[in-house]
Amino acid sequence: MTRILILQGPNLNRLGTREPDQYGRKTLEEIHGEIERMGERDGFSPVFFQSNHEGDLVDRIHLTSQDGTAGIVANLGAYTHTSVAIRDAFLSVGLPLVEVHLSNVYRRESFRHKSLISDIAVGVIGGLGPAVYRLGILGLLDWLENRTPKSPPP
User: Fold this and answer.
1) Which of 77, 105, 107, 133 is most open to solvent, judged by the fewest CB atoms within 10 Å of its CB?
2) Which listed residue (23, 32, 62, 79) is catalytic?
3) Catalytic one among 101, 106, 113, 133?
4) Closest CA to 139 of 99, 88, 81, 95
5) Phi/psi class of residue 92: alpha, beta or left (left: φ > 0; alpha: ψ in -120 to 50)?
6) 106 is annotated as an active-site residue
7) Does the pLDDT at position 22 exceed 90?
8) pLDDT tens track for 114-131
9) For this structure, is 101 an active site residue?
10) How far apart are the C-alpha atoms of 124 and 101, rounded to whole Å?
11) In this structure, how many other beta carbons lie within 10 angstroms of the beta carbon of residue 149?
12) Rounded to whole angstroms, how far apart are CA atoms 133 and 154?
């Protein structure tokens, strides 16, 4: 079964209560529950990790090179705009990455318009609330199916 890391950055543990007009009222646990049900239905295995600490996120990205992860869907929150360390961690493992954002970053403060990972991601989805996770996963699964070299038939 295809293993996908759903990586969540700082303050996403506050979803549901944090700026609901910007991020909605669903909690991170509710979003993860929807993804788990989607995985059961669509045949992939989601692995969830959230941290408010940059180094913990870097360490978890590194672990993907050893644990059978096929790709990553990441909402890095504020680290999207600031963390060279997280960018370098993604580059070091070489897995396909989809960047997601609950809000439309281009309708927000100008400092949020620059992402340090968009150019290394296979796709970027934002502004659609929790649906970005489902869309990001579907896009990643499609990318893996169509871009991963297949072994020749026996």
Assistant:
1) 107
2) 23
3) 101
4) 99
5) alpha
6) no
7) no
8) 899 999 999 999 988 999
9) yes
10) 8
11) 5
12) 36
